[in-house]
Design a protein that fits this description.
Helix content: 40-55%
Number of helices: 28
Strand order of the largest sheet: 1-16-10-13-14-15
Distance between the termini: 60 Å
Number of strands: 28
Largest sheet: 6 strands, antiparallel
Radius of gyration: 36 Å
Strand content: 15-25%
Structural class: alpha+beta
Length: 757
């Protein structure tokens, strides 16, 4: 990879190599995502499945082979016959000539024993005189109750279940019994500790120990008592077959493999830092979102170390591309890609250099890619990465830069020209453009200097006093502080604040010392992630989220602004538009991470992720000094969201459907068949959401070609899908899987809506 880039001379060379333009935060987000994937794959490959353990069956059937494929002994027929099995009459019965007729059993042996009928209720293959409908069990007069002595039971598979047994290797002992769990839960008859008959309801996933087996009765002792305070329950084996599972590790429960892999990946994600799982998870979410971050906490807690780790991870991009000769590391793509330039603007010096009329007219004509000279540098300190220690002496000049006169006292017209950067020395922010700015002890910087930093954070530009033009400073800010409470609301709104505390358990504490003292670290480069320059950045906002949930988040914030002021840790910034946008980004980023490790996660964010996104965004703006106050504030915020969001979501679902019905009511005045089509369409999606794929394709085609009258017919045929295109952001970009889940969500919440069609 490096060899190819060292040959680059101009922007066209980069384009020919397949390099995709990305700003620094997007690139770091992509690197972080690919590091997660690579670590996950490595952990899984090294995982010892036997040590993880699994749940295995506890009871299995005794299988008896029937060589002839039929049973003629009446006692055995009574024992083994079940509903649905086939029999053949072997003699006349009760004066009826049925010998040789075959039929299907519609009652079982328990029926015979309970009401003492003549025999099994058989539905024969053909009608005969005096036949019955088996007391309503069948619809035609083909039935007859026949005793086992006049039947032959057919066993086509030549095998039959002859009772049940505990699987060899499963230990049932008062002291050393196996750990078991109820896979599906159990509801029905059982016996208590005194072997008296009872009815119990054991919840799904309940765990227990096997403590005894005698006379075909299995004794389990639940880990948690039932509501009626029972813990000891006796079951027959047939009651728990296929349900009760035992741990392959004996008395120890199997570990959740997916959770174990996630924990191990998060433990290894930062090369030197050792964080608890939750803090590491939150930090990774922030990276994938591309957020500027501040890590706060007491001295020696590892704040600086995690910033260094993130920078090391970012350096896996290996090289940085700059316009040759540029003082502020302009990204070459900024000069030729107008959309990219909106996010990562070029500097005025480069604009004047490649389009001289810009200096006088302000009009910029983009050059040809082959004309833009490119410098390829190693992504390192001074080339994409800048560091500063926060002090009260730091001022705006240090951040923005300064233009110095000629030291010999003579004048220079170009230096005095405010449009010229001659004699200008960029400050920290312009020098970090296209890269990362690391600020240690940011809380020690004076407020007026922080205001200048805020300007840069908000606009990705900063204006030195001696220059006419603003300079770009599109950089990731990674900072530390001891006292986050000193920061103004706007600063805390613009950055994510993460508490880094001393580890609270001995193992994690020792891991920190071991890494620092013995140098047992795993450099970031030891986890290969490939060439990220040639990949598109991970754009979270391209992941669809039901518009109802997005509106629910906005409505929840409106309610929070009115009610949240009584909560500890409350700040006006927690109701800001940026906080709301962060909540939506967190919901998506959290799902992106979870999808990597867990199989049962949704394709698009659901209500669980919308709620978690709001909790995360609110808590990331808390900045209490003491650990106790910090934790208490976050607990209260999380409780408020969990207690209010579900009802708000329900209300938004009703509002959305009411508006949908109103839309259809208006539309049918122009095309009466729309109402019928609307109902038919929704019923089709409820039956199978995949039915939406064809209607989606037709509506998208109609919208892309509004002059094609034949295609416009789809708008009348699929009015619900057409309405979704109006309401759901970026509906035209969803893929089939996302579409199916989106439609499934909208139709599932229709029944609970207050309005009805």
């Amino acid at each position: 990879m490096l060899e190819d880039y060292l040959k680059v001379e101009n922007l066209q060379d980069l384009i020919d190599l397949g390099v995709k333009p990305k700003d620094s935060s997007t690139h770091l987000a992509l690197i972080s995502f690919k590091r997660l994937v690579a670590l996950r794959d490595r952990v899984i490959s090294e995982l010892n499945e036997d040590m993880v353990g699994t749940w295995i069956p506890t009871v299995e059937p005794n299988i008896r082979e029937i060589p002839s494929g039929e049973i003629t002994n009446p006692d055995e027929i009574l024992k083994y016959a079940k509903q649905g099995m086939t029999v053949v009459a072997t003699s006349e019965f009760d004066g009826r000539q049925i010998q040789g007729l075959s039929g299907v059993i519609r009652t079982d042996s328990s029926y015979i024993r309970s009401i003492r009928q003549n025999g099994f209720g058989i539905e024969f293959e053909s009608s005969f005189s005096n036949a019955t409908n088996l007391d309503g069990k069948i619809t035609e007069q083909k039935g007859l109750y026949v005793a086992p002595a006049s039947l032959k039971l057919l066993v086509p598979e030549r095998k039959i279940i002859d009772g049940y047994k505990i699987i060899p290797g499963i230990v049932v002992d008062e002291k050393l019994g196996h750990k078991v769990r109820f896979k599906k839960g159990y509801k029905g008859a059982a016996k208590d500790a005194d072997n008296s008959g009872i009815n119990v309801e054991v919840p799904e996933g309940a765990t227990a120990m096997l403590r005894g087996y005698k006379n075909d009765i299995l004794t389990v002792v639940l880990d948690n008592q039932l509501p009626d305070r029972r813990k000891i329950i006796n079951f027959t084996l047939d009651q728990v077959v296929g349900n009760l599972e035992a741990s392959s590790l004996g008395q120890v429960e199997p570990q959740n493999k997916e959770k174990l892999v996630l924990e191990e990946v998060l433990n290894e994600f930062f090369p030197r830092t050792r964080l608890d799982t939750l803090r590491a998870y939150r930090a990774v979410i922030g990276l994938i979102m591309g957020k500027d971050m501040n890590f706060y906490g007491p001295p020696g807690s590892g704040k600086s170390q995690i910033v260094k780790d993130i920078i090391e991870i970012a350096q896996q991009q290996d090289v940085i591309f700059m316009v040759d000769g540029c003082k502020v590391q302009c990204n070459p793509f900024s000069l030729v890609n107008p959309d990219f330039a909106k996010v990562v603007p070029p500097c005025p010096e480069c604009m004047i250099k490649y389009s001289p009329e810009f200096k006088e007219t302000g009009r910029f004509t983009a050059p040809k890619p082959g004309d833009v000279k490119v410098l390829v540098a190693k992504y390192s300190q001074g080339r994409g990465i800048e560091s500063i220690q926060g002090t009260v002496g730091l001022n705006l000049m240090h951040l923005a830069g300064i233009k110095l006169p000629k030291l010999d006292g003579t004048t220079d017209d170009e230096i005095e020209d405010e449009a010229s950067t001659k004699g200008f020395h960029p400050g920290l922010l312009p020098r970090a453009n296209n890269g990362i700015l690391r600020i240690e002890e940011m809380d020690k910087i004076r407020p007026n200097t922080l205001d200048g930093l805020l300007e840069a954070l908000n606009s990705s530009r900063i204006k030195p006093d001696q220059l006419r033009y603003e300079l770009p400073c599109n950089a990731d800010i990674l900072s530390t502080s001891n006292d986050p409470s000193v920061f103004s609301g706007p600063i805390r709104d613009r950055m994510f604040f993460f508490a880094i505390r001393y580890p609270e358990d001995a193992d994690t504490n020792y891991e920190v010392i071991r890494a620092a003292y013995h140098g047992e670290i795993s450099p970031a480069k030891d986890v290969p992630i490939g060439d990220t320059h040639k990949e598109n950045g991970s754009v979270l906002r391209n992941m669809p989220m039901p518009v109802i949930l997005e509106k629910a988040v906005v409505s929840a914030y409106m309610k929070f602004i009115n009610e949240g002021k009584v909560l500890p840790g409350y700040s006006d910034i927690q109701g800001s538009n940026r906080c709301r946008q962060d909540a939506l980004d967190v919901a998506r980023a959290k799902l992106v991470v979870d999808q990597l490790f867990f199989k049962d996660k949704p394709i698009i964010p659901n209500s669980e992720y919308a709620l978690a996104g709001m909790q995360f965004a609110l808590c990331a703006r808390v900045a209490e000094v003491s650990k106790e106050a910090d934790q208490n504030a976050k607990i209260k915020l999380n409780e408020w969201v969990a207690g209010n969001f579900p009802a708000i979501q329900k209300q938004e679902e009703s509002v959305w459907w009411c508006n949908a019905y109103k839309h259809i009511a208006v539309a049918k005045t122009q095309a009466p068949e729309i109402e019928h089509n609307f109902v038919r369409e929704i019923e089709s999606y409820k039956k199978d959401p995949r039915n939406s794929i064809l209607s989606y394709q037709n509506i998208r085609a109609a919208r892309e070609d509004p002059k094609d009258l034949a295609k416009q017919r789809a708008i009348i045929e699929y009015p619900f899908m057409d309405y979704l295109f109006n309401e759901q952001p970026k509906m035209h970009r969803v893929n089939d899987s996302q579409l199916v889940e989106l439609v499934g969500y909208f139709t599932s919440c229709q029944e609970g809506a207050a309005c009805k069609s």
